[in-house]
Write a structure and sequence with these properties.
Shape: globular
CATH superfamily of the largest domain: Dihydrodipicolinate Reductase, domain 2
Oligomer: single chain
CATH class of the largest domain: Alpha Beta
Order of helices and strands: EHEHEHEEHEHEHEHEEHEHEEH
Number of domains: 2
CATH topology of the largest domain: Dihydrodipicolinate Reductase, domain 2
CATH architecture of the largest domain: 2-Layer Sandwich
Largest sheet: 7 strands, mixed
Radius of gyration: 19 Å
């Protein structure tokens, strides 16, 4: 049996990678419309009507319009935009956070795909809050760097034309669109200071959480809490610091749906950094969408990944 999927916005970076991963699969039939009608509401509604799952790879406002367009249809939706990530009517599509969330994804009609920065941030912080190693009202700082594909077509063109800098920091007003979902799904009551940056590489991401240590919050305790939380998970791996080495490369997980977490530091000087490395278009976008689609369809969640 083949399931039907319609990617609304398949011309964008996330949509293209979802399509590339789904096209070879015999258990999936991709529904397409004429490129000239990609903004035609009637053509899109007809495609949604024929689909088991619609994946929205659209700007926020366009994603909201697509949801309204499908309101009376049976199609299930995965939204890769920011529009619904803190909406209680949508299930947050990060199955590794808990067995309960994975079960909710399997039954949901509406699933919001996590953002790339938030995937790394939540993956690090949420288990440590649950384990009592980070207080929900503790002031935190998150530092991250992403490949330029996360910035959309204009930024991609700037880099590909050779006019962009090797590295730049942005989001300095502390109003980055991923902050609300990081707080909501990591269990934080105080807004973290978030410092994102872009580097001159297409795909890849490193997210860093610096922490002060004490008698209870040791390097070993952080590693143990994260390892226990993600034990048995295929796509979130907690690895020893010695295994990943002293240089963590943002592109190390490119082309995969794997996020690798490690804990680095020294109890003697009281400082540590918890690090997540992932492909911003893999586990941070298109790979996660396919994983969620597999779960929703009752398939092996690793199929095609």
């Amino acid at each position: 049996m083949a399931y039907s999927i319609f990617i609304d916005g398949e011309a964008g970076t996330t949509g293209l990678q979802i399509r590339e991963r789904l096209e070879p699969r015999e258990d999936i039939r991709l529904i397409t419309i004429d490129p000239g009608r990609r903004k035609d509401a009637d053509a899109r509604r007809e495609a949604f009507e024929r689909a088991d799952i619609g994946i929205l790879c659209l700007p926020d406002e366009a994603a909201r319009e697509a949801v309204e367009l499908t309101r009376d249809l049976d199609v299930r939706l995965i939204d890769a935009s920011t529009a619904h990530r803190v909406d209680d009517r949508w299930v947050f599509g990060f199955p590794e956070l808990s067995d309960e969330i994975r079960d909710q994804i399997a039954e949901a009609r509406l699933v919001s795909n996590p953002g790339c920065y938030s995937t790394g941030s939540i993956a690090i912080i949420a288990p440590l809050v649950a384990a009592g190693l980070i207080d929900e009202d503790e002031p935190l700082a998150i530092n991250a760097v992403s490949g330029y594909t996360g910035g959309g077509k204009a930024l991609i063109a700037e880099y590909q034309d050779g006019g962009a800098p090797a590295h730049f920091v942005y989001g300095l007003t502390q109003r980055h669109k991923h902050i609300p979902e990081i707080m909501a799904h990591a269990g934080l009551l105080v807004q973290p200071v978030f410092s994102p940056a872009v580097g001159n590489f297409a795909q890849g991401m490193v997210v860093q959480l610096p922490l002060h240590l004490d008698d209870e919050r040791t390097v070993a305790a952080l590693f143990e809490a994260l390892s226990e939380h993600y034990d048995g998970q295929q796509f979130v791996q907690v690895v020893d610091a010695e295994e990943v080495g002293s240089r963590l490369v943002p592109t190390a997980m490119n082309g995969t749906n794997v996020m690798r977490i490690s804990v680095h530091g020294d109890d003697d000087n009281g400082c540590a950094t918890v690090v997540a490395v992932l492909d911003n278009l893999g586990k941070g976008a298109s790979g996660a969408a396919i994983q969620n689609a597999n779960i929703m369809l009752g398939l092996d969640e690793a199929e095609g990944l």
